[in-house]
Amino acid sequence: MERLTYFIITRKLFSSPIWREDPHLLKLFLYLVGKARYRKTPKRFLGFEVRRGELVTSLQDIVDANQYSQGRVKHSWTRMRVSRMLHRLENMQQIELLRDTYGTHIKICNYDKYQSIDTYKFNDGVTSSVTSPLRDCYEGVTRVLPYNKDKKVNKGKKSKKVTGHPSGTFFKKSLSEKIKFLKHHSIFEDADLFADDFHKNKKWDEKLICHAFNQLFKKSKNGDDPLRRWEGRQAWAYCEKIIDSESAIKNAQESEKESARHKESVKTSGEILNLANSVTKSIDKELTREQKLDLLHQQAAKLRKDGG
Asked: Is the residue at 57 inside a domain?
C-alpha cells in the first residue's frame, strides 16, 4: 500500500495576491509546494544538495505533470509559459529560483513557517482552535494559566485580569502600528498587503486607510470579549467597503462644491452681462445726442451762409 503524505495549506492563501492571479499560476504554486522536499535532512548530489522546501526539476517535467483536459481535448502548458509563471512567482516572493547548472532548482519561500505544525500552535502546545477564546486577545492584559490535563494544578486559581483594554489607544496609533496590531491579533493578517495594494491601484491616502482599519477594529471589538478574528477575504472586503463608502461621500461633497461654484460663476457672469448691456445703452444714448448737436450746428452754419 502506498504511503500517504500531506502538506499544509494555510487559509491565509485566500487573502494573498496569488489567489487573485491567473488560476494556472496558483496550480503551479501548489504543485511546487507539494513536490518540494519535506524531510529535514538534505538530499545530497554531486556538487549540490536539495534542502527542505526545495526541489530540482525541469520545465518539461513540469509541463508533463500538469496536463489537463477540457472536454475530450487534452491541454498542456508550454515550456515558455512555465518559465514566465516561475519568474512571476519569484517576483511575488513566493519562490526563489536558485542559479546552478543542475536543472531548475526552486526554493519555496517561508516553507518551514507554513509547513510546520508548531506555526499553528501556541507555546504550550495546545492548538489555536482550543484556546483562541482565551489567548492572544488583549496584548498581555489577560494572563491565562497554562493548559494542564491535571485539573488539580489549576484548581481554585483564577486568571489574573488587569482592568482596562490596551487596544483603547488603537485609534491614536500610526498606520504602521495599526498594521502591526491587526496582524499580531489575527484580526487582519494581510493588513500590510491591503495597504500596499491600495497604494498601487489607487491614490495614496493614509487617512482613508487608517479610517478603514479603525472601523474594522470597532467591528472586531465587543466590550471585554476577545477580539474577533476575521477569516479569508472578509476583512479585506470590509475595508474595501468602508473606503468605497467614504470615497463616494467625498466625491458627492466635491460635486456639491463644484455645482455651487458653477452657480456662483453663472450668477457673476449674468451680472457682468447686465452691466455691459446698461453701459452699451448709455453709450448709445450719448452718441445720439452728439449726433443731434452736430446736425444742429451744421444747419445753423448753413442758415448763416444763406442769409449772408
From this structure: yes
Encode pLDDT of 6-32 as tens digits: 899 999 889 988 999 899 999 999 999
pTM score = 0.42
Q: How many domains does the chain have?
A: 3
Domain of residue 67: give its range: 11-114
Return the CATH number at 76: 1.10.10
Identify whether 224 is part of a domain: yes
- In this structure, are 160 and 197 located in the same domain? no
Per the document, the length of the chain is 308
Cα gap 105→46, rounded to integer Å: 14
Q: What is the mean pLDDT of residues 258-278?
A: 72
For residue 52, pLDDT beyond 50? yes
Report phi then psi at 48, rounded to 5.
-160, 175
